[in-house]
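Quick one: C-alpha cells for this chain, please?
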Amino acid sequence: MTSTSRRTLLRAGLVAGGAGFLAACDPSRPDPAIHHGSASPGGPAISDGFVAPDGAEVRAAEAARKPGRARSFRMTATAGPIDLGGRTVNTWSFDGRIPGPPIRVSAGEVVRATLTNRLPAETTLHWHGLALRNNADGVPHLTQPPVAPGAEFTYEFTAAHPGTYWFHPHAGVQLDRGLYAVMIVDDPRETLQYDDEWTVVLDDWLDGVAGTPDAMLAKLQDGPGHGEQGGEGDSEVLGGPGGDVVYPHYLLNGRLPANPETFRARPGSRLRLRLVNAGGDTAFRVALGGHQLTVTHTDGFPVKPVKTDAVVLGMGERYDVLVDLKDGVFPLVALAEGKKGAAFGLVRTGTGTAPKPKVRPAALNGRIVGYDELVPAEAVRLDDREPDQVIQMELTGGTTSYSWGFNGRPLTHDKLAEHLVPIQAGQRIQLDLINSAHMWHPVHLHGHTFAVGSSSGPRKDTVNVRVEDSVSIVFDADNPGLWVLHCHNIYHAESGMMAALGYRR
C-alpha cells in the first residue's frame, strides 16, 4: 500500500469562529417538504447503475444513524454591506454576519436547516466534513438542483459524528465572499477537559476591496500566463507557491488586524481553540505567542494529544488544540503561508499593552506537527484491512492555461454525473493522490472521513498534497450515494479540479 510521503506535512486546521446559530429547537414540528436531489425538478439524471441521492440505500443509511430529536434552523443568504472592523464592504453573507451565525447540536440530533436565497445568483449549502445523507450534501446538479434566487431549500440530516465542521456554498466562487459559518457537533460523552472555548475562523479577503471573486476567476482564466500574476512567494511547508491570488486582507472571525477580536480568559485556564480555514486560496500557519499548542482533533476526529508550536491549515481543514494560558496579552497570528500578511487576534488574561498586528511570534518558526506525527484515537482508528480497490487520481493542470483536473480531465458541477468513478458499498477504498503540478492542492472528499497514509493514519476529510508529491488516503465505503472529490482551492475547483465517486447499486 502506498503510504503518505514523509515530505507531506499534516496541515492542521482549526478555524471556526463564532457564536450560536439561528432559530431554535422545535422537535414537535412536522417534517417540512424536503427537497431531495434527483427527485426534484432540475435535479441530476443518474444512471440506473448507481445509487441515487435520494435512493433506498441512502434512506437506509440514514435510518441506521438512529436519528434523534430534530432541531430547526433558518438562514438567509443575502447581499449587502458588512463591517470588517473599520472597513465596510459590499459582499454576500449569511444573515449579514461574517462568519455567519453558527449551528451547534449534539451528536445524533437531526439538523433541519432552511436556506432562503436572497442573492442575485443560484446557491446551495454544503456541510463540510459531515458524513451525512447524500441528498443533503449540497452539490448542485449532482445531489440537488441549485437554489434559485428568491427560493428556499430545506436540508435535513442526522449529525452523527461529534467534531468541528463548517458549511458554505458549493456554487461558483461564492465561498470567497462571506458565505460561510461553523457547525459544532458536541459529544455527549466528551472527555476533554478545558475551561473556555474560542472558535476561530480564518479567511483571505478581496471582495469589495479588489474587485470580486468572479472577476478574479475570470482574470486567472483569461489567457496564457495569466495565472502567474497571483504568486507572492514560495512556502517550504507547501513545497512551492503559496497560491494564485494576492489578497489585500486576511481576517480572523471577520475582522481586520487593525481592529482584532479579543478573547478574554483567566490566567492559568485551559482554552480549547477550534481553528477553521475558510479561505479561498490561502493556507495559514497559526501560533499563539508565548504558548505551545496541544493538538487534540483533526477535521473533527480525535487524535492522541501531541504538542507543537504551530499548525498549518489548508483551505477546508480544521484543528482543535488546547492551550494552558499564561498571564498577559498574547497575539494569535495566522500567517498567510507563502504570501504577505496575516490574520490577527488577541488573547487577554491580564493587564498589559496589546501586541501590534505586525508581530510575528517565534512559535511561527518552531515545530509544525506533520500528518505522519498524528495518531488517531483508538476509537476512530480504521481497522487493519487491505484495500478492495485502489484508485489513482493524478492532480493535473497548471497556472499557464489555468485548467485543472484529475487524471487530465477538467470537470464542473454540471458534468460530474456523467463521469462517475464507481465504488461498491462495503469496500475499503484507497485513493492515491499524485500531484504532478507545480502547485499544492488541499483535496476534500465529501461524505466520508479517511485515514491519511494507511489505516493507522489520522482521520480527516481534507488533506494537503504538496507540490510534486503524493498522498494515499483510505476509507470505508459506508455512505451510499454520489460524492465529490475536489481541490478546496476554490479557483482550482471552479477551473476543473473536481471528480465524483458513485456507489454501484
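The chain is about 5% helix and 40% strand.
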